[in-house]
Design goal:
The protein is mainly alpha-helical. The chain has a domain of 102 residues. The protein contains 4 helices and no strands. It comes from Poecilia reticulata.
């Protein structure tokens, strides 16, 4: 007996034993959940890139990798928006419609490739990103003393200083 026949017999045995058919797998429901999860991750990365862009714009052109980071962040944000739009269109189509399956497959492959390039770009963004010692905010951020300025302790600790 072949492995495929064993799997079919197992499913048939389930139906005979329980009197129920096994639950069907709805591809549309799966694709919708997958797209929603991917969209949430996309939004989180979009927020992180927006924050990084704000920080690099705040640092100004004095930062060594100012222009490369601006270009990489803009490219990453653009790819994320494109992936988000692709996911919206993928969810709108019926996956069980045979005529649209090739189009959906192409759109899904495009989204996967764009996500891959977004990850690569974000690796470079992280590599070129900010280090605590590599940026100087001396003119922008005031010096904060590391030790708080407290009054000196009395020499005789039994005296409270109250008359």
């Amino acid at each position: 007996m072949k492995r495929e026949d064993e799997a079919l017999n197992t499913m048939g045995d389930f139906e005979v034993q329980t009197g129920k058919r096994p639950p069907s797998f709805d591809m549309n429901h799966y694709a919708t959940k997958k797209s929603a999860a991917q969209s949430m991750l996309d939004v989180a990365l979009l927020m992180a890139n927006s924050s990084q862009l704000k920080t690099i714009l705040y640092a100004g052109p004095e930062y060594n990798f100012y222009m490369p980071l601006i270009v990489l962040l803009a490219l990453s944000i653009t790819l994320q928006v494109v992936v988000g739009l692709l996911l919206v269109f993928i969810v709108r189509y019926n996956l069980n419609d045979v005529q649209k399956q090739t189009k959906l497959d192409t759109m899904n492959n495009m989204a996967t490739v764009f996500v891959f390039f977004t990850v690569l770009i974000n690796i470079f963004i992280t590599a070129l990103g900010f280090q605590g010692h590599s940026m100087s905010f001396d003119s922008v951020v005031p010096d904060i003393p590391l030790k708080p300025q407290l009054p000196p302790l009395p020499v005789n600790l039994t005296k409270t200083g109250v008359p």
